[in-house]
């Protein structure tokens, strides 16, 4: 397993990620990550406090949260998943080509590079060029550079290491390549199931929030609206209680998002 650190990607990096595999974010996607948090934060705050200025302020906080945190995490996750799928396809195609004993490694890499997408395509082309007209030292360096670019993908790292050994030392460890490829496939399936499970957790979380809001509405219905506002919402006790409640909701919401947007199943976070 590899260790990874959190990184706050810039807007330029986010845009580059969103178009790397030919599927740029649409305007409605940008709007969704601003408007939905804005309306949710503003609506809940107004429901609790019955002050428009507080609702608008909370809505601006929610919209900023959606833009600066949720949108970036969503694009980053989509990019990393697409890149992982691309590396998985490379491993499968490469292994299939190398089962033919007459297939030179350079030709196999060239064939895979033609069908690759994203940043992996250019890296494979660069590797192919190095293999054609460089000495052994440069070739070893090229394979190491490709490994370092994807060091968090343990099986891909091992696979590229084995390819380097095959090319430099002339070994034909096709069985080892197959084992590494098969394990990469298993990790991919595990990650896909993990993502599917999180969709159900997302539904459960939304249900929990709705029940929480329903509880508040129930309290309001036990009074008239005017009594709720005068006796509770605008009273000091109500203001403090609602502030604590809103803070807890946001904390739980943020904790949920941290887990929801974490798709890594083979990495350890520090």
Automatic annotation (TrEMBL):
Keywords: Membrane, Transmembrane, Transmembrane helix
Domain of life: Bacteria
Transmembrane segments: 30-47, 53-71, 208-225, 231-253
Protein name: Uncharacterized protein
